[in-house]
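As described in the Methods, two query proteins were run sequentially through the folding procedure within a single session, without resetting any intermediate state between them. The first query and its resulting structure tokens are shown here.
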Amino acid sequence: MPWYLSRPPGGGSLDIHYGIFRRDTDGVREASAASTEFMMTCMDWARPVSATSTVLDLGSGHGGSTHAMVERFGCRVKCVACVGSLGLRG
């Protein structure tokens, strides 16, 4: 079994993605943070995000990425989560 399959999702962070494991010692929390940071960097490269921006977060889940975007960019984020017991939220 690959090492990354032996790590459960979650880890107490604000999101539940496996993420980007940059070091062998990274846990899910660090990998999730690295994944969110990479996503926000790519977003900002593609189209600069500012406090006047509105971002649509499809599949927002518990909102970990949403919180990170608001904190980093000061933007407005509209969320849609449709996952298991989370139901549909906007």
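Immediately afterward, the second query was submitted; its sequence and tokens are:
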Amino acid sequence: MSPQIADPPPSSGAQGTLFCSDLFTHQGEVEPQTSSAVVGLFKQGLIGYQDGPFAHAYPYTSNTDETLKRLAALAPKTLAIMHGSTFNGNGGKALEDLALAMREVLGSSQ
């Protein structure tokens, strides 16, 4: 499943939520919700995956950065993460940081 954004009616006062699927996956005992850095947790797990059966589980292509930039431009306030804490905050910045983390870890390996 690809990431999806849900925007409530403007009159509701609520902010958009990006349903992230496996983007930002992180492991371990984590809080249900957080407003702190989820990218660091994702990057730690991604680095760990590279030495095991999940190496190359995340595709990284010439389209990855641009795709994540388009998602960041949606400026979600909530990132609903399938495997990890839901993030509340600047989702656009988190997606930009995710692109950097993926480039650093996967950019030269695929």
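The first strand starts at residue 4 and ends at 6. We note this only descriptively and draw no conclusion about the first query from it.
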